[in-house]
Batch of 4 targets.
Target 1
Amino acid sequence: MAGIYVHIPFCVSRCSYCDFFSTTCLDKRHEYVEAVINEWHERQDYLQGEAIQTIYLGGGTPSVLEIEDLKKLLSALPVSTAQEITMEANPGDLTEDKLKAIRAMGVNRLSIGIQCFDDELLKRIGRRHNSQQAIEAVQMAQRVGFDNISIDLIYGLPEQTLEHWKKQVATALRLGVQHISTYCLMIEPSTTLGRQFDAGIIKEVDENSENSMYDYICKATKAKGYYHYEISNFALSNYESKHNSSYWNGTPYIGLGAGAHSYNGHSRQWNISDLKQYLSTRPFEVEKLSETDLYNEKIMLSLRTAKGLQADVVEEQKIRPWIERGFIEKKDNAYVATQKGQHILNTIIEDLMI
């Protein structure tokens, strides 16, 4: 089985924390969709005949595409055989008519970028929706028949406290969505928040507070029946993201669009993150993966998940110190990060890699 990821880089405006490739050149949307379709036709052999299990439209903001462009794009892809078709969306772009049209195209999973339910913080991080729009977007999607909805939340936002975070989590859980993804704010130097941090306008939330926020979302979601299947992701039973899980378990996938990455088990390939170049010549780079690369990736990706790292991948003597200190535990035939270990997972991974 394999997956398709389509990067839609267009945004009405850039969020102050975002370090992903995006552009506000919305006049290029139609041309871009044509280019993505052409790339798919030219590169189908990349997956060597593997059946497509998942399709994921990410960004950027896929929901800024016009309905006709979305319809044209999806009709060119193998939606009839895909089990899961996800589209990311901004709450401010969604109406009932648009949601009905998206669902009719075959999209059966919606990922809504909410980030938080606090209007002041939403303004500070450059989001163009407010908290009421976020809530209404989820409720509209539920009314039109979407029964597989994921929302994104960010913790560790400037001046955010644990009590504030608890309110965000409570609001999210009341919505009754099937999946929640949570990310700790990373202040990247090239972003607006990064420049504000350098200028002393904002301060980072301290590590202990971030850890407390993370522990709280783990506890609160578990109490509501969510399965913590990956370090940043929580799902009700059978609602884990099939597409994102493919990244963690080594399933091949093809990435279409500017800046999109592909993986076929032997190498990684990525398109250059430049809209003008993508529309003209679609330049890309390739990295062949050595045995060491594949080993390191297995360490890095497997330990992020609840299934953990198969015990025969790493020497026991190398991982034993982490077990003895309570950061890793052995379950059945796999090594799994404990709650304590998840706080320093990057350190553990770096130690185990070669």
Target 2
Amino acid sequence: MPITLQENQVLLLDTNCPHSIEELGEGDIMISLVLEREFLRTDLLGTFAHESILSQFFVNALNDQTDHNRYVRFHAEHSRRVRRYFQEIMCEYYDPSSNAVAVLLNLLQLLFAELITVYEQDFIRRDENHGAVSVVPIIRYIETHYRTCTLESVAEHFAVSPNYVTTLLKRHTGMTYMQAVQAQRLGRAASLLRGTDRTVENIAHEVGYENLSFFYRKFRAQYGCLPTAYRARYHAGPR
């Protein structure tokens, strides 16, 4: 099936996806980046999956769409950043600085952060065109109000029933409402452990856990270790 890319659009092709490129027109410029699948999913997309349930949702959605359709198209025509990041990537690749590897990795992460934003806008637009309530604003609301919101308050905010919120979350994220809240709390806790020197008890209370033992149990189930070990492992860096 022919795909005509507009200016600034990006096409993500799965590994070993058969494709060909027709002759470009005068003035057309196409940039092709070849990334190993493991690098893409671990070093690029994987960096976003642990930041929030919304990031995790979009990373999973991108992976799922690539697995089934063999490609994802990003309608980035109006993104000022995509063009800028590609330009900087090309400049750094052909005229590398002394720290080129780190610079390129960070530029690629910025590029995919922007592509995830573009994908989010497309996702919401598709739902709205079908007259459906999009799960994305609901997830974003939970991310913002995870310390105080309830299933009922979320449903009331979006003028839908609690059962509808539950069904929507389960269908698109595989999580119940409470699992989504727990995932957001733990993700925020992990971020604070990585980025601050605040005590574990202080962080647990910050993200909404009054029972420290319960927090330890949930954190270990999510990350495979206790919070202090997680912090030590993160600051130790790769070996």
Target 3
Amino acid sequence: MYSAEIKKVVQHFHLENILPEIDLEGRVISRKEINRPALQLTGFYERFDNDRVQVIGRVEHSYLLTLSPQERKQAICHLFECHIPCLIICKNMEVFPEMIYYGRKYGVPIFRTPSTTTGFMAELIAWLYTELADRETIHGVLVDIYGEGVLIIGASGIGKSETALELIKRGHRLIADDAVEIKKVANHTLIGTCPELIRYLIELRGIGIINVKELFGVGAVKQQKTIDMVIRLEMWDGKANEYDRIGLDEEYIDILGHKILCNTIPLRPGRNVAVICESAAITNRQKKMGTNTAKELEERILKYGTKES
């Protein structure tokens, strides 16, 4: 389980802290989902997830205005005594005195934002899904090639970093070398980043560590990228392996429960791996746009065979 500090949420979304006397140190959010407590304010608490961030919008605020002072006090008391992580009020609406009272009593932080409820919730959910995403670290290199996030993997010393350096010299961008931290931010979206300790660095055997940002400029690096495909480098072994020569058979690799297209590139003297990686990225992009050269060739062969017969 991962968590996000509440003070980090406050800083990222520039929230107004209504109760600054409440210490935010050590307070975290552990749920990606958020909740608008409309039903809870009416008294319905069955299946209420009190560990979610609670957001008050115009609907909830208007409902509280219709209540008598005693009813409003009771409704707000029940919400705060559930020990929710925090309460966020949108559109800079009025903070009821009862909220301040029970916020202090139960130690629940209250924040306010000028953003609309729908817009703020969408941004907060997206941010929480990134911060609390399932993740794993893979040994490899992540490069942005023609807009495609290409994860290059292979045995240690096979030439992943050297390939990345050649790709950078050809105008592409480095995200991570050696260790790629991958987050699953959605069911079909994986984002790769680099640990801060080795960000922008590449290790070249025989030379040492180089700083790509300093040598090639900020245009040669990027902080994160979605992973669109994987390229596995391995030494050529024509006897043990039969390599795909047409492209009809697609291989996939499982990362955090999501299948990613994987191309195995055999290495032998004279092969320009950087150019092959570029071609693989362009081919993958073509397929997304509806062009599959291998299938078109297969259709030509079938059509030609039908004419011959």
Target 4
Amino acid sequence: MALKSNLKNMVISLTAICLVCSAILAGAYAITKKPIEKAQADKLMKSLTEVLPEFASSEKGVISVDGVEYPYDKALDADGNVIGYAITSKTAGFGGTLSVLVGITADGIVHNTSVLSHSETPGLGAKCTSDEKFMSQWKGLDFSAHSLTDGRLTVSKDGGDIDAITASTITSRAYTTCVNQAYAAFQAIINEEN
């Protein structure tokens, strides 16, 4: 004998299906949560070693600049002396949020940068992770050796010194903004610590 199709039976069936699907999703989340967190921590540690000189340990912190919080890692040598800071900076790129880790030595030189995440266009803006000419500009960058506009680096199209990725000016501007923000956070950290 088949059940008669009515509103009550449809609601019960739909509720049961929703509960089963919710349980499956919750289970998948619980199973994958720790491996995802470990992968993210491993990626951050790898990025830290790329953007900073060799260090023995690090301490986490957060600094607020103009109402925006910037997480950072303070890198220390074996004697506890500060080697530098790895500051995470985010801004809007062409395809979405661009997140960059900027390593700045204790004397204020950008040691290196690394993209943590992006949604830029493959083959264009996504080159911010692979274009050697663009990436090499940031290694050893000294703010005092560049022409600044209002105390900030700008891309050459805007009259600055930073060469943009070909056909990706918006991504290049966003990347430059991330470095500028990280440097402002670095200066705030130094002011706070002194």
